[in-house]
């Protein structure tokens, strides 16, 4: 079997700047939670108290609809209910398995113990092998033409209209590995941090494999897309001139791993089905904690940072966690208010390590939800994929007679109305502040795409409602005002950085 693509040649002739290596010890770490330990109860109470869920606050309301569970958690944390809960039988490891996978044998307790040592994705792979089901072989092996085209695309990796779907096809489904490795090399981080190339390779392969390819949205292509966006944001002048190599390494690794082993269902689902992860993390940033701990598991398993002093390695893991935990959408208001306060007071200081870390958190949050800021052709595909995943969850909830999550009911929602709500209450407020922070052509391009994409969804909704209700019916979408003057994809300008 041919190898699909080659390892890039490392720039071995550059010396390791001593100041970078010595700086690592000087970085301050804000995270107080212990690795692999239970969440700090003080942290829980602080965080619960920090967010207002005033029903008049549309943004908070929408975020709560999307996935916040702390309102539910006020009912009480009752681990003893696990054994008697009627929904315990639902195991999300089986959610996206194909019919050909057959039934799982996850009931025996020794086997269950083994499962928990593995990521869910690797459990599925290993269980298929144990049952004698051969691994799926890629249908096509890439030839030089594909590799060459992928390499050409990487030359424009910093452009905002970078087509990650095409890049994923050109790399035979290896976009996350190829892109991350390219960026780490481009920054010279492999030699700077003296990373062992084989360990790095193994780490990236395992990261990519631990994303669930069966998830319509939360898969390795989403992680690659977020990594590419993170790179674009870190290249913005205000950050490019101030970020250290350590910041950049953490930013890229956090983007690549931020949804690691995502099960394709949201936190409320895990809580209402009494999933053990919800118990483990006490209903608190359940998925994000799992993504972080999964990433730390792979770092330790591959020994990627094993050559660093133990303290530095632990600090890297904590910083990684702090970045990944910031992607919890239910904490959006906390971050947005803090960001707004800093901008109002004009007191963000990029020479301050904790401020730079906060800016990395904001950059990763922006990267994670930047789909509506992309050109329509890309944005529309992401919208359909995420809605597909929501609706799959809704179907499972209906099947098991669970309460259907608000945006997961395919009979009550459309791609368009979900997107318009998401853009209005979550994406626009965040990117408006980001534009205040980084007032560049890229930021204005992104804001332009949000407006035009929202208008396009509005126009599609009006079209659908006029077809459904007859030609005399006026548009009834509450966001019509925002969507006035719907556009076609042809009207959407290309971003300023792409050329
Ligand atoms: Zn994500």
Automatic annotation (TrEMBL):
Residues at the active site: 218 (proton donor)
MF term (GO), any: 3',5'-cyclic-AMP phosphodiesterase activity
Pathway entry: Purine metabolism; 3',5'-cyclic AMP degradation; AMP from 3',5'-cyclic AMP: step 1/1
UniProt similarity note: Belongs to the cyclic nucleotide phosphodiesterase family. PDE7 subfamily.
Entry binding sites for AMP: 218-222, 259, 368, 419
InterPro entries: HD/PDEase_dom, PDEase, PDEase_catalytic_dom, PDEase_catalytic_dom_sf, PDEase_CS
Domain of life: Eukaryota
The keyword Signal is annotated on this UniProt entry: no
Positions with a binding annotation for Zn(2+) 2: 259
Catalytic activity field: 3',5'-cyclic AMP + H2O = AMP + H(+)
Binding site for Zn(2+) 1: 222, 258-259, 368
Segments for region (Disordered): 463-499
Cofactor: a divalent metal cation
Bound cofactor: record note: Binds 2 divalent metal cations per subunit. Site 1 may preferentially bind zinc ions, while site 2 has a preference for magnesium and/or manganese ions.
Domain PDEase residues, every copy: 142-464
Signal sequence residues: none
PANTHER family: CYCLIC NUCLEOTIDE PHOSPHODIESTERASE
Keyword Nucleotidyltransferase listed: no
EC number: 3.1.4.-
GO term, biological process aspect, one: signal transduction
Name the UniProt record assigns to this protein: Phosphodiesterase
Keywords: cAMP, Hydrolase, Metal-binding
